[in-house]
Specification:
Layout: E1 4-11, H1 17-23, H2 30-38, E2 45-50, E3 54-61, H3 64-79, H4 83-89, E4 91-94, H5 95-106, H6 118-132, H7 138-157, H8 167-179, E5 186-190, H9 194-205, E6 210-214, H10 218-228, E7 231-233, H11 238-242, E8 247-250, H12 261-268, E9 276-280, E10 297-300, H13 313-340, H14 344-364, H15 366-369, H16 374-402, H17 408-418
Parallel strand pairs: 5-6, 5-8, 6-7, 8-9, 9-10
Antiparallel strand pairs: 1-3, 1-4, 2-3
């Protein structure tokens, strides 16, 4: 039975941030998750992708129904969720629909902010981990390399990534909407990872008055702050800084909220009714949701960013149409490659049989050839191989051309019978006739 390509997951369109943050495993859990995936007997190969806005399993199986249930159970266990709750928020795509989905994800056509560049790096890292844990195989390997190729084509052949569009950019755009202008405003950046760096770059470009960077690892805060002319802080200084700043952008990898209700409430008395805005782009969330209930305090999480960016909307739509065409072209190419997999064993068997015949005939002719020099013997072998390759070339091209067609299996069966490829391997690799 032909293995199916399956993608099961949740993303920002199907599941709220509350559910996604339950599923978002820490970086150290990926190895364990891939180990569990590898141990599933109904799964041939696969990989696991976890980002702020999506959690997905891409895998192949010749027991599709059983594999889907196993993967859903694995996901539910990851987030300690009931299977029914997860099923209602998840999607399941098969074969070319799954291939198209992966190509769209890699090309940032399925992102919250279309065109953001971070997702490709995240997919590459997920694939790297799958190869390290030996959960990927022929199909996933080929699919991922084609996905990277598609993303490269989309970036080079369209203008979809021409503008600075990312979740971090959206966070800064939201801050501008809140205050109309960021000039003269004081910003506290909590977290010094990639998302925080992107936010810092956009903030500096929009004329903020001052920026502070706090991180659990102080050296990292110093590094990021130095790049943007900001002030580095330790986590212990956050409470003091909340008294002074106008906007707090949070982007840490903490498992629990960094900004709690009690922490903010204690700071408000000294702020004298000045508004305080929290923009939380972390998953799991850094800001406790009920902080939003405090007077003059406003909290926006990652789901609130979906409607923020209006800049170049029509331009991105036009470029996205071009990108979708590229994706569709590449899906067709991948489908054609996938179809040829069915003929590969027969082609390899033909080539192996030809090689066995050449070796056997050279051994038989050894007495006749012994007077030749080493170079002359090599020339005879090259000639024999060249003749065999030319004889097999037309049958191989014919089989490749019939791959995936309705009568393809019939042609494969006829070819195996004509060349006697299924005889017992002990009978000289099948090149003795039935009459012997």
């Amino acid at each position: 039975m032909k293995a199916k390509i399956i993608d099961i997951g949740v993303n920002h369109e199907t599941a709220p941030v509350e559910l996604r943050e339950c599923l978002a495993g820490d970086t150290g859990s990926t190895k364990r998750i891939l180990g569990a995936l590898r141990d599933l007997p109904c799964v041939r190969e696969g990989m696991f992708l976890s980002t702020c806005n999506r959690i997905e399993f891409l895998f192949t199986s010749d027991q599709a129904s059983e594999a889907k249930q196993a993967i859903l159970s694995l996901m539910a266990g990851l987030g300690e969720l009931q299977r029914g709750v997860l099923s209602s928020c998840s999607y399941s795509l098969e074969d070319m629909d799954a291939v198209k989905h992966i190509f769209r994800v890699a090309s940032s056509l399925d992102s919250m902010v279309v065109g953001e560049p971070q997702i490709l790096g995240q997919i590459k890292e997920a694939y790297k981990q799958a190869t390290q844990e030996k959960t990927s195989g022929v199909i996933v390997n080929r699919l991922m390399h084609r996905a990277f190729h598609v993303a490269k084509r989309v970036r080079s052949e369209t203008g979809i990534s021409a503008s600075a569009v990312s979740v971090s950019y959206a966070a800064v755009e939201l801050a501008k909407k809140i205050f109309h202008s960021l000039e003269g405003k004081n910003i506290l950046l909590i977290g010094a990872g990639e998302m925080a760096e992107l936010a810092a770059r956009h903030l500096v470009n929009n004329g903020i008055s001052s920026m502070r960077v706090a991180n659990r690892t102080f050296e990292r805060a110093v590094d990021v702050a130095a790049r943007f002319g900001a002030k580095a802080l330790s986590f212990d200084e956050i409470d003091r800084e909340i008294l002074e700043v106008d906007i707090v952008i949070c982007s840490t990898a903490a498992a629990e909220p960094v900004i709690t209700f009690d922490r903010v409430k204690k700071s408000l008395r000294k702020r004298r009714n000045r508004p305080l805005f929290f923009i939380d782009i972390a998953v799991p969330r850094d800001v406790e949701p009920k902080v939003n209930n405090l007077a003059n305090v406003y909290v926006y999480d990652i789901d609130d960013l979906q409607g923020v960016i209006a800049l170049n909307v029509e331009q991105r739509k036009r470029e996205a149409l071009k990108a979708e065409r590229i994706v569709q072209e590449e899906v067709l190419k991948f489908s054609q490659w996938l179809n040829t997999l069915s003929v590969v064993p027969t082609i390899l068997a033909l080539q192996e049989k030809a090689d066995a015949i050449i070796q056997a005939e050279l051994r038989k002719s050894n007495n006749l050839l012994q007077h030749l020099t080493h170079g002359q013997k090599e020339a005879v072998e090259v000639l024999a191989r060249s003749i065999a390759e030319k004889v097999l070339n037309d049958p191989i091209l014919f089989l490749k051309g019939k791959a995936g067609r309705a009568a393809g299996d019939t042609y494969l069966d006829v070819a195996r019978r004509l060349f006697n490829l299924d005889r017992n391997q002990g009978e000289k690799n099948g090149f003795e006739s039935d009459d012997q």
